[in-house]
Amino acid sequence: MTEPFSTLQDQSVGEIAAQLPGASGVFRRYDIDFCCHGEVKLAEAASKRNLDLGELNAALNALDPGATPDAPQETEALIEHIQLRYHNVHRVQIPELIQLSAKVETVHAAHPKAPKGLADALRAIWGDLEVHMKKEELILFPAMRRQAAGRLTTPIEEMRHDHDAQGVFLEKMARLTNDYTPPEDACKSWRALCTGAAQLRKDLMEHVHLENNVLFPRFEEGA
């Protein structure tokens, strides 16, 4: 990063996540939405979560700004990374989670903490996400690869809108899984479901972050 860390509180969480390697992990740990609402300033994000801004700043200051980013920075390589690491992974993990959730909901239907409705929520987001990813793969990403002369603001706005819906889903999944925490008497399948759902949260947040905060701004008006 080129700016002193003391100014972090005046930057948006999306900017920080895009510029500072490891920041996204810090934000996940403090349950800060850096992907779908990356425009929020750090100080405001801390206030909304009733977090100590000094503690949050210290956690970010402890990161190495010279560390290798988790994702490639060149546009072509970044697009390839998004497709391989996230699109392809979602196509495996979400159908598996749907089956696992349906099993847990059926077997533990009488349990007061059963994740009732999770399978339906996963089916709904999977239908929307598959359409979303195909639009990117068939239309948006090829246009970016061609370095289209015109800006791609309109299709990107549509993708950002989809991302907002994905953020709502993540909030719902957290509620239905008790923040990905199984009860003490949970079976192995229920525990695996919570672990898998937590991994989906991590993957989807990173996926949306890389698009919203890193890739998309390169092709929007004013870029």
UniProtKB/TrEMBL annotation:
This is Iron-sulfur cluster repair protein YtfE. It comes from Pikeienuella piscinae. CDD domains: Hr-like (cd12108). It comes from the Bacteria. One of its GO terms (cellular component) is cytoplasm. Keywords: Cytoplasm, Iron, Metal-binding. Residues 82-218 form the Hemerythrin-like domain. It is found in: Cytoplasm.
